[in-house]
Design brief:
308 residues, alpha/beta, 8-stranded mixed beta sheet, two-stranded antiparallel sheet, globular
């Protein structure tokens, strides 16, 4: 019925908003802004009506959650970095119908998920920052999915991603884009050193790890990448434990995915973390690889003793 038209891994780094403000940082993240706008432009060209955002700033301790109220409006100040994001206005429509479909399909596949359409919950900045540049005209409806998952396995996040694709393609009458909103490595600069690392990665190891992953994405080495994702998330200090990436790969078909990523905004450093904007072309997938891949993920996570 419906169409999954575009998927992407996107940045939401707070210095994007800071770069709008008069001062020494003004204009310094224009490349990231341009990349987000380009992905938004492509969504418009494809007739997308709703953006589903896997938000690594929405922390949850039990279950998966889908924020799908009818409308969102407010003024946002980050409790994490209030000197970067303060009084940032936001407004855009939601999509209760789609959000409920996503949760229902996830539950049908054994992933406990709740849809919240009548709630005082507001989106986190993993959703709000990209929407500022991708959806300034409020053309797109927005659904946000929790992706800082504190007590979850990556295998469940992969299954959630596949369930979301199935719900879109089999039960939704419309066109959707999926955005995994999170960084590559996410080791912030140590307190007191943030200015020194404003445009750098925290360590040579993390930078080389990230750059190798970007190379793998561009080369389409998905079997290898999916196999290393649990350790990459742990040893690379993955944002939100990289649940957004697991969700994205699940939606794409996991290690059976067979296209090459297109880098829109080249890899860059921000406060010690690694960032980019990248589009992942959608290819037909059966979903048969998801259960097997998840079993290996669960085993890896248990062996590592981590929240993966």
């Amino acid at each position: 019925m419906g169409t999954l038209a575009l998927t992407a891994k996107i940045t939401h780094v707070p210095s994007i908003y800071l770069s709008e403000i008069d001062g020494p940082r003004k204009g310094t993240r224009q490349d990231a802004i341009d990349g987000l706008k380009e992905i938004g432009r492509r969504c418009r060209a494809l007739g997308v009506d709703t953006l589903v955002v896997f938000d690594t700033h929405w922390l949850v301790n039990a279950g998966y959650h889908v924020l799908c109220g009818p409308h969102f409006q407010g003024s946002y100040t980050s409790n994490e970095l209030p000197h970067f994001i303060s009084h940032m206005p936001f407004e855009f429509p939601g999509n209760p119908e789609l959000g409920k479909l996503l949760a229902a399909e996830a539950n049908a596949l054994g992933v406990e998920t709740l849809a919240h359409d009548a709630t005082t919950l507001e989106p986190e900045y993993g959703t709000l920052v990209p929407m500022r540049y991708m959806n300034a005209d409020q053309q797109f409806k927005v659904v946000s999915v929790s992706a800082m998952c504190m007590a979850h396995y990556l295998n469940d996040s992969a299954r959630l991603g596949w369930a979301i694709r199935r719900a879109i393609e089999e039960k939704y009458d419309g066109t959707v884009a999926i955005l995994a909103s999170g960084s590559m490595s996410h080791r912030f600069a140590q307190n007191g050193l943030a200015p020194e690392f404003a445009f750098k990665i925290w360590s040579p190891f993390l930078e080389q790890l990230d750059r190798e992953v970007v190379r793998m994405w561009q080369a389409g080495e998905w079997q290898a990448f999916c196999g290393m994702l649990p350790e990459y998330a742990a040893k690379g200090h993955g944002e939100g434990f990289m649940h957004d990436t697991a969700m994205l790969m699940g939606a794409l078909g996991w290690s059976d995915y067979d296209a090459a990523a297109e880098i829109i905004t080249p890899y860059f450093g921000a406060s010690g973390t690694g960032q980019l904007n990248a589009v992942f072309p959608i290819t037909p997938q059966s979903g048969d690889a998801i259960p097997a891949a998840q079993a290996s993920h669960a085993s890896m996570a248990a062996a590592m003793g981590s929240r993966l």
